[in-house]
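[audit] Reproducing an earlier prediction to check determinism. Same input, same settings, fresh worker. If the tokens differ from the archived copy the diff job will pick it up downstream; this log only records the rerun itself.
[audit] input (289 residues):
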Amino acid sequence: MTESRKTVLITGCSSGIGRAAAFHFARQGWNVVATVRKQYQAHVLMPELHQISLHTAVELCDVSHDEALQQVVAHTIERFGRVDVLINNAGFGQSGAIELVTADEARRQLEVNTMAPARLAQLVIPHMRAQRSGRIINISSVAGRVVLPWNGWYSASKFALEALADAMRIELAPFGIKVVSVLAGPVDTQFVTNVHMSAPLADAPELYHKIHAFAQERRTRARPNAWSSERVAELLFRIATVSHPRTRYVTGGTARAAMILRKLLPDSLWDRFILRAYGASSLLSNRNA
């Protein structure tokens, strides 16, 4: 019975987009494997998913550990016999100037947001090739196309994820495997609240304090126009089931506007625009004096 159903593997399902996607796919009759990092999260999610469908499983998986990634794919195949869609959703945000972020923090950002999705793709691709079908959906970000101050390492992780998706999309097309990126704008989840302040401000230049304050304010202002997790989950289901999905989907008008503006403006004008927005434009006149 379970092998006749399609199977989706979703990472980062303790809250937000991942959780909403797990529930949505379960309601649509799919086999669902949802991953969480901690045991107490599994204890909460598992009975709630089972109320919707018994064709669901919750797996403990820290995506920064390769052994955990191997186990979750192996368990998915053992339980359901196939994996039709991989949704790489797990990730975290990090705030801090490039100068101040430690090497360990930067490495962790790339391991979770870039290396883990790539590794999971490597693990599911052989099964998808054997099926001659499959979809890999990466929850990326508008930050993978538009970089803002205090956001550099997070953007780097998403830029890299976008590059990997571009390569995989072409490499896997002959095998019937489609690769899709969702460039998320503001989404009403705990993601913004949980953004990790990776660099202490105590000894930072005064301007960094101002940029940090503005960045926090900007995130707060974006909340009223944010998509709900459920709306993103519906989009993910459409991507998983439509015959010919687009290569990229952008969620929200704010994200689209930022991408268009960045594309139109030359670097010099973009830099001035951002410096002015962050209250740092006086530096330019001082530098040129």
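[audit] rerun output stored. Observation attached for the diff report: The chain has a mean pLDDT of 88.
[audit] end
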